[in-house]
């Protein structure tokens, strides 16, 4: 009986310690990691280490590095300058057809948002607007990462 | 007689674990694709305490495999995340149960934390990007209350199990 009480006491100590520890990590990470000073956003597709699309917030330019696939007249990734969106082909299939992923960007706000994608839980589009937090669409194998380095623009 | 009983109970536990796993995959609380809170760990924890490590590991692996087959996600990224999380949690819970330092509650919390770490580790390998680590702080924080809940349910069940088991054996 005494041993059980001792173990339960250790349990409570463990729970308090990990909550304080993880809470600290969580808030410290929040404060440090996501600043609104991204200079570029990289869109990655698949397991390729090089980004497929680069969104340069400072220069206000979107660069497509590789093409994915051609569907009639549309070549993916497809950049729409008026709507300020990049459309890619995701890996998620509905009835054997690969679904598109639409990423909206904003040069002045330095933000990116996945506005349209097809996946079971729509996790990455529900993430909303991001200014530094990586957006990961696992079923589509597309992710957006941010870069804060200012090596490309020296004022 | 007791072997038959064990077999039937394990089959029932497996069914419960599968249902819990499918239900929790429909609740995307964590913003990591394919990541789960680990409610199915309740069953792993209970079986670990009732029948030991061997039964618990068989049941957990069966659960991951069957759920992936039922949801059509076998060998998909989600499958690897589930597998890695489940194996990490299982090994951690088995080890800490053996060490006998914590009660069921503490063991469950440790299992839940390792479940989160296991999933992130698998996500890093599957996605080939360390960017997923960004989600680790949130997942760790959420894993603690999830582990406490799992542990409390497991402990309650275990106490009831003792009474029920004692009654049936004397009857």
Give your account of this protein's structure.
The complex is a heterodimer of chains A (155) and B (171). Chain A is 23% helix and 37% strand. Chain A is of the alpha+beta class and 155 residues long. Chain A folds into two domains: 1-33; 40-147, mini-chromosome maintenance (MCM) complex, domain 2 (Sandwich), CATH 2.60.320. In chain A, strand 10 (135-137) and strand 11 (142-147) form a beta hairpin. The longest helix of chain A is centred in the N-terminal third of the chain and has 32 residues, at 2-33. The A-B interface holds A 4, 7-8, 10-11, 14-15, 18-19, 22-23, 25-26, 29-30, 33, 44, 47, 49, 119, 121, 123-124, 126-127, 133-134, 136-139, 141, 143, 145 and B 28, 31-34, 76-78, 100-103, 105-106, 109-110, 113, 123, 127-129, 131-132, 134, 137-138, 140-141, 143-144, 148, 151.
How are the SSEs placed, and which strands pair?
The complex is a heterodimer of chains A (155) and B (171).
Chain A: H1 2-33, E1 40-45, E2 53-56, E3 61-64, E4 69-71, E5 74-76, E6 78-80, E7 85-94, E8 97-106, E9 111-116, H2 123-126, E10 135-137, E11 142-147
Chain B: H1 2-25, H2 41-51, H3 53-70, H4 77-99, H5 104-127, H6 136-170
């Amino acid at each position: 009986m005494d041993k059980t009480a001792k173990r339960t006491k250790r349990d409570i100590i463990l729970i308090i310690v990990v909550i304080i520890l993880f809470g600290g990590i969580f808030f410290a990470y929040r404060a440090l990691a996501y600043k609104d000073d991204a200079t570029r956003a990289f869109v990655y597709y698949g397991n390729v280490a090089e980004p497929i699309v680069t969104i340069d917030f400072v220069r206000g330019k979107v660069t497509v590095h590789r093409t994915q696939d051609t569907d009639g007249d549309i070549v993916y990734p497809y950049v729409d300058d008026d709507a300020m969106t990049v459309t890619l082909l995701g890996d998620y299939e509905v009835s054997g057809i690969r679904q598109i992923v639409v990423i909206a960007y904003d040069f002045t706000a330095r933000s990116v948002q996945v506005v349209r994608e097809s996946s079971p839980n729509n996790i990455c589009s529900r993430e909303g607007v991001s200014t530094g937090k990586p957006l990961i669409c696992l079923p589509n194998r597309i992710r957006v990462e941010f870069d804060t380095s200012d090596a490309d623009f020296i004022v | 007689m007791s072997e038959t009983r064990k077999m039937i109970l394990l089959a029932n536990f497996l069914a419960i674990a599968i249902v819990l796993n499918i239900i929790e995959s429909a609740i995307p609380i964590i913003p990591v694709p394919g990541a789960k809170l680990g409610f199915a760990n309740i069953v792993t924890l209970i079986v670990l305490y009732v029948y030991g490590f061997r039964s618990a590991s068989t049941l957990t692996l069966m659960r991951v495999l069957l759920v992936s087959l039922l949801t059509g996600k076998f060998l998909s990224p989600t499958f690897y995340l589930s597998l890695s999380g489940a194996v990490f949690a299982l090994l951690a819970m088995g080890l800490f149960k053996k060490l006998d330092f914590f009660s069921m509650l503490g063991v469950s919390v440790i299992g839940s934390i390792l479940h989160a770490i296991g999933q992130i580790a698998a996500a890093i390998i599957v996605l080939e990007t360390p960017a997923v680590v960004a989600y680790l702080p949130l997942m760790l924080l959420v894993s603690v209350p999830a582990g406490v809940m799992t542990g409390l349910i497991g402990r309650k069940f275990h106490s009831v199990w003792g009474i029920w088991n004692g009654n049936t054996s004397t009857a």
